[in-house]
Design goal:
Helix content: 40-55%
Order of helices and strands: HEEEHEHEHEHEHHEHHEHHEHEH
Number of domains: 1
Largest sheet: 8 strands, parallel, barrel
Number of strands: 11
CATH class: Alpha Beta
Strand order of the largest sheet: 4-5-6-7-8-9-10-11
Number of helices: 13
Distance between the termini: 77 Å
CATH architecture: Alpha-Beta Barrel
Oligomer: single chain
Mean pLDDT: 88
Structural class: alpha/beta
Length: 296
Amino acid sequence: MFSPVTSIILTPPSRSLRRRDGNQSINRKITQHYWGCGVYENTAKRKLQSGQPSVGIWHSLCSPLVAEYLGHTGWDWIVVDTEHSPVGFETTVECFRAILTTPAAPMARVAGNDPVLIKRLLDAGAMGLVIPMVNSRKEAERAVAACRFPPDGQRSLGGGRSFVYGKDYFEWANQEILLVVQIEHIDAVTAAREILAVPGVDACFVGPNDLAGSLGIEPTLYPSHPDHIAAIAEVLAAARELGKPAGIHCPDAESVVERIRQGFRFIACANDATMMRNGVARSLEIIHAAESGMSA
């Protein structure tokens, strides 16, 4: 049952909202109610559904300001990494709010396939989730159930930020939330077709480092071992067979381009911490080289 407040929300017809991002522009449909809030079309999910590559970045610097900057650079989505970064829940909420002022879709990688963690991030405003270490059909079904409201799943109806959007949100969420399961263990590779066949799983995402570890190979984002390469290719083949987009984490832009050519569609280009470190290191390298030349 909806609360008395949400039950009296007046919902006019949808309208288009144009948001501009530098040289880019994007159209999103927004449905408003009388509070002036609205629920947005998940443009990252639309791109995947149309067969286009959807490219984003991992946010691990725990800063709403950085998240907002990233959103305005042109990524399709920003994943706030709650698994491997020290970001707290309140900061994650502020990151979602900052990203929503940009054309990018606010997403999160959950710390684990836990319905409580999933529920909190969705209630906080995530438009998509990446679920780590999904190694079986049963685990995929668990993730779907936690992400979808009844009758499609078992997600609890409650307050949080979603309350502000009233009944519009509950009607919107089951269609627009992007659910991506991580295939990052050889057991998941073996079960990839069963995992991807689960209704409600929108895409899969290869984690090269953990996948390498499960194969007894040194973790790397630059696969060179034949077993590592073969496992990644098997995931892509399974996704194509099931008609689901396959994704992968890439260390740099060149790798992103190559993976798109191979057929991957949901692709992460490194993370903000790595890009910042590499950019700073390169700048200092140029400066120090110039200083050495001047003193010679």
